[in-house]
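PROTEIN FOLDING TASK:
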Amino acid sequence: MRWLICLMTIGLVACSTIAANEEEKSDPPKVGDAAPDFTLNDAEDQEHSLEKLQGKIVLLIMGNRKIRKEDDKWAEAFQKDYRDNKRIVAYIVADMRSVPGFVPKGFIKRQLKKDKPPVTLLLDWKGKVHQAYHTQKEKPNLYLIHPDGQIAFQIKANFAQKTYQQLKQAIDAIQEE
């Protein structure tokens, strides 16, 4: 019996090591790469898909509940400059894996309806989109996606006016094409 438990333990360790190595093999997407596609719902249960946004400039502000204020700063600056522009859209993509399991999804959705973010907030319950983009947890991860589906700009930073101007230049350059 001991040898069976030992063998099972070794098997589990080996499997988790292989799985960890598989994740490490994929590189994070970079400027010029095709943006990883996704389909997520917002708090109103409306489905949003990157594929359906082909032809538009898309800004993804990727974060989690602990950095929501920073995500909102990026979104507020974006809205100030591009609110009425129909060629460009922005989303906050929230990594919901850090939400305690005992908190009902319905409660979170109701809270988001009460405290609406500056742009549509998409709920990444399983963190798959964040894994595909290799996001960091400590600060917002921004990805600007060209209408052709390629990543045109990316940065991992808290909001600063100087950094926002770099993003704005990238957006304006795409619009001028």
In short: The domain at 29-176 is CATH 3.40.30.10 (Glutaredoxin). Confidence is low (pLDDT under 50) at residues 3-24. The beta strands are 39-42, 47-49, 57-64, 88-95, 120-124, 141-145, 151-156.
